């Protein structure tokens, strides 16, 4: 009877690339990072950021609502496009994830400030900007402490934090809910303020939760499970 060798692990079956660890076979693991700066996904991020900034500048100078709407649409559609392109073309990188997060804040803050020219809602906008820049920015960068490609794969570490913050529904709600409420209900700004405050509370709680998670120091890649909680 022929001798049968033991099956190899997924990492053993995956090809090795020069300068990179062996692939572990877990989608979203940091070892899948091709470490490419020049790719289609990052190019889209640059283009949508610059285009939205140009449109929002025109909106501010001409006091034009259609131009501001165009700036928002370029930002929102471009933000979705660069991530989808990265996934479709297997170009997801940790650099691209951080770059996208920073560009999101540039576009969002510029659009929100110009939005105040059209809707006098300083308190809802102030709460939103505090949440999005002061709280959500470090929260979104914290997943990079783990060997994952981006926060989009934080479900490998903590499913609840991922669902509340980086699930597609949570991300869309965070970037569009406030503006939608202020446009649809301009005479009831308290609704937008309550919504923005609720999101702020969720973000602060999530930040505390993620900070309490233990980062394994001796694990070269992410296993299919959750990290140990402190």
TrEMBL record:
Cellular compartments per GO CC: membrane
Name of the protein: CDP-diacylglycerol--glycerol-3-phosphate 3-phosphatidyltransferase
GO biological-process terms attached to the record: phospholipid biosynthetic process
Enzyme Commission designation: 2.7.8.5
Protein source organism: Modestobacter versicolor
A Pfam family assignment: CDP-OH_P_transf
Molecular-function annotations in GO: CDP-diacylglycerol-glycerol-3-phosphate 3-phosphatidyltransferase activity
Enzyme class: transferase
InterPro entries attached to this UniProt entry: CDP-OH_P_trans, CDP-OH_PTrfase_TM_dom, CDP_ALCOHOL_P_TRANSF_CS
Transmembrane segments: 123-143, 164-184, 190-208
Domain of life, per lineage: Bacteria
Keywords on record: Membrane, Transferase, Transmembrane, Transmembrane helix
Similarity comment text for this entry: Belongs to the CDP-alcohol phosphatidyltransferase class-I family.
